[in-house]
Amino acid sequence: MKKALITGITGQDGSYLAEFLLEKGYEVHGIKRRASLFNTQRIDHVFQDPHEKPPLKLHYGDLSDSSNLTRLISQIEPDEIYNLGAQSHVAVSFEAPEYTADVDALGTLRMLEAIRFLGLEKRTRFYQASTSELYGLVQETPQRETTPFHPRSPYAVAKLYAYWITVNYREAYGMFACNGILFNHESPRRGETFVTRKITRGLANIAQGIDRCLYMGNLDALRDWGHARDYVRMQWMMLQCDEPEDFVIATGKQYSVRQFLIWAAAELGLELEFRGSGVDEIAVVAAINGNDAPALKVGNVILKVDPRYFRPAEVETLLGDPSKAHQKLGWQPQITVQEMCAEMVAADLEIARRHALLDSHGIAPAVAIEDN
Ligand code: NDP
Ligand code: GDR
């Protein structure tokens, strides 16, 4: 039985990857942070009683703690490590740049050093969660493995260090270490403050009368969005290659944030009209076709642009070229962005309906006030 260690197992990708590896028969170990509330919601459905020798084991740890990481790797002796843990929010990295560098840049170094220190460099394969944010101010379109980097945030700069230290340990110590340069990927398990989930959750809540208006930033940003389930498959495929290499993972299609809003609204039976531009832009309900938005009337303003969501330096456009992954690994994404949007809206509508039902019985569940 192969053993895998996942940092960031409680996150979006970690949860899909854990499911994927368990289905492949792996013994899966995950590092979770200590939190004052339960933080394993995304993996609870695959977690079993720890007293019954389950194939999924969780360990407390943190990417800022070398001794903890070294001890865990020494105890587990994993065949594969997936380093997905990170402060992963670009806007938050402007607020917490030093912490982001510590976890995202030095955290990667700590993992690699632990493997080397323990003499596991010829046994343990290492996957680094690199990102299309490395391209930032893009130098070439579409972006491929050879496109020069120009990071635009403390997050992206930290990930640039992580990218290169992974390459360096491969070259210096012959480690099987590779970077997946992943473009944005989403799912119903996406964190609530990333733009797609903010939209699907926000519109579902507004449609059900839980909220009134969504406040957003740059609606003109262009992204290449895929589904997390497709992308974690590729993370595993990269570690099964004969030689370690870096790969771009993307769909090769690009859409605006505004387009994603239009799709999400359509899933709720809403047609939107966009009025104004820049900070004055608003979206108004132009038509209602169906029963999913009982709280709304034609003419309601349900979205306003708020400059607080603009970033000090924005990544305006990203579009990936996944040809290498297609040609060398036969990887193709199977879920389109429209299918993904429909899945996300359906999931958030279900949550909003339950919330509204509880509300109607006088049991008001706490509403999380999320920012960013
Ligand atoms: P999430 O934000 O959903 O998950 C991040 C995970 O990292 C969580 O499990 C989080 O724990 C954990 N984490 C945060 N800080 C620490 C720390 N100090 N020590 C240990 N673990 C920590 O991210 P995704 O699943 O979306 O992304 C996975 C990885 O891929 C990240 O590295 C991200 O930067 C990168 N990436 C993501 C892309 C995307 O579009 N999703 C695209 C390209 C790269 P907790 O649950 O406790 O917060
Ligand atoms: P990104 O994702 O920064 O690309 O990083 P995010 O969904 O946060 O933003 C995408 C684009 O949408 C614009 N935007 C808004 N973004 C947020 N979060 N909230 C808003 O209200 C809003 N309005 C407009 C943003 O300005 C941006 O242009 C994600 C993360 O998962 C990273 O960890 C990962 O490395 C990259 O994707 C690839």
H/E element sequence: EHEEHEHHEHEEHEEEHEEHEEEHH
Overall mean pLDDT: 96
Our count of helices gives 10
Number of strands: 15
- Number of domain modules: 2
Mind telling me the CATH class of the largest domain? Alpha Beta
Q: Approximately how much helix is present in the residues? A: 25-40%
Structural class: alpha/beta
Query: Per DSSP, what share of the residues sits in E-state strands of 2 or more residues?
Result: 15-25%
- Give the C-alpha Rg: 21 Å
CATH homologous superfamily title of the largest domain: NAD(P)-binding Rossmann-like Domain
Bound ions, cofactors and other small molecules, one mention each: NADPH dihydro-nicotinamide-adenine-dinucleotide phosphate, guanosine-5'-diphosphate-rhamnose
How are the strands ordered across the major sheet?
3-2-1-4-5-6-11
The global form is: globular
**CATH third-level topology of the largest domain:** Rossmann fold
- Unreliable residue runs: none
Enzyme class: lyase
Domain NAD(P)-binding: 5-344
Catalytic activity: GDP-alpha-D-mannose = GDP-4-dehydro-alpha-D-rhamnose + H2O
Organism: Paracoccus alcaliphilus
Tell me what you see in this structure.
The structure is a single chain. This protein has 10 helices and 15 strands. The model has no long low-confidence stretch (mean pLDDT 96). It folds into 2 domains: 3-182, Rossmann fold; 195-222 and 256-316 and 336-360, UDP-galactose 4-epimerase, domain 1. The protein starts with a strand and ends in a 12-residue tail after the last helix. The chain has helices at 12-23, 66-76, 90-95, 97-117, 154-173, 195-207, 228-239, 257-267, 323-329, 337-360; strands at 3-7, 27-32, 56-60, 80-83, 125-131, 177-182, 185-186, 214-216, 222-223, 226-227, 247-249, 255-256, 270-275, 282-288, 301-305. The longest helix is centred in the C-terminal third of the chain and has 24 residues, at 337-360. By secondary structure, the protein is an alpha/beta fold. The structure holds NADPH dihydro-nicotinamide-adenine-dinucleotide phosphate and guanosine-5'-diphosphate-rhamnose (GDR).
